[in-house]
Amino acid sequence: METTAATDTFFTRKLAAKGQPLIFAGPCSAETEAQILTTAWALKDLGVDLFRSGIWKPRTRPGSFEGIGTVGLKWLQRVRTEVGIPVTVEVATPRHVEEALAHDVDVLWIGARTTVNPFAVQELADALAGTGVPVMVKNPVNPDVALWAGALERLERAGIRDLAAIHRGFSTFAPSRYRNAPTWQIAIELKTRFPHIPLICDPSHMGGKRDLILPIAQKALDLDYDGLIIETHPDPDHALSDAEQQVTPARLGEILGELKYRYRSS
Ligand code: PEP
Ligand code: MN
After folding, report:
1. Which ligand ends up closest to the CA of 242?
2. What does pTM read for this prediction?
């Protein structure tokens, strides 16, 4: 494993400037230009650090909304230039990387259904090499720290140093109050292997329900996570994906106000 410390990255610079955990937010999926811009302006008022939006959605089963596609990247360009928040999208193929970068996307992320596949991760690492774009890697759907670590190692070996890890929880067959069980010790183990890589919690996909976002996010902050990524939609009940877990920007503001932050000196 290559262990070169990455001390000056998109994420560490933002953390140093803010002095507290980063907040990433935005809809599960881009649906319309109005939805994207309405959400982004509201999140700007909350001081959100990075605007998330799915453009290509890898769905577990066919027949549900699989993303608006390339046209949505033009809406995200307006978020960057008019609203002034950097943007991030999920990429699952080299073509997604090429299209996202052609539209000036600031940060890319690899989703849980892609992190499980070493060939797919390697193709992405090859496509990302030399681009300089920051990359976030979600945990794989299954509770396997080695697969998550392996994805980060493939990116590091391709020379990609601007990395963050997103903990979004793990599938279980057994009934659970969570959509994806946190199994916190897996993320803590990853952090011991990659202490230089910021760790972000995704309480939206862990909980799968609005009411679980606050307690999960608080637990992550108590464990000294470096940030949160929270799905936000102007009309969550009518969202085309992940309707039950998305919150309005107003509710996100309340959640951020209720969270207790520990003092961070670095
Ligand atoms: C998402 O972020 O909307 C998403 C599909 O997440 P995950 O890869 O964690 O399931
Ligand atoms: Mn989602």
Report:
1. 2
2. 0.96
Which residues span the domain enclosing 76? 25-56+70-258
- Asked whether 133 and 108 are in contact (CB, 8 A), the reply is yes
Its ipTM equals 0.98
Domain assignment of residue 146, yes or no: yes
| Residue of 107, 138, 147, 228 to mutate, ligand 1, most atoms within 8 A of C-beta | 138
| Residue 12 within any structural domain of the chain | no
Helix (H, G, I), strand (E, B) or coil at 201: strand
Domain count, the chain: 1
Average per-residue pLDDT for the chain: 96
What is the rounded CA–CA span in Å between residue 145 and residue 231? 24
- pLDDT 10s digits, 45-71: 999 999 999 999 998 889 999 999 999
Candidate from 96, 114, 167, 168 with most ligand 1 atoms within 8 A of CB, to mutate: 168
The 3-state DSSP class for residue 194 equals coil
Using N-to-C axis directions, what is the helix angle for 118-128 and 94-102, rounded to 10°? Answer: 30
Q: Is residue 126 part of a domain?
A: yes
Residue 245 has what DSSP assignment? G
Among protein residues, the one with the nearest Cα to ligand 1's atom 3 is: 28
Report CA dihedral (250, 29, 69, 133) to the nearest 10 degrees.
Answer: 80
* Assigned domain for 38 exists: yes
CATH of the domain at 162: 3.20.20.70
- CA of 239 relative to ligand 2 center, distance in Å: 10
Strand, coil or helix: 136: strand
For ligand 1, atom 10: residue with the closest CA: 112
Residues in the ligand 1 pocket, defined by CB under 6 Å:
28, 54, 111-113, 138, 168, 205
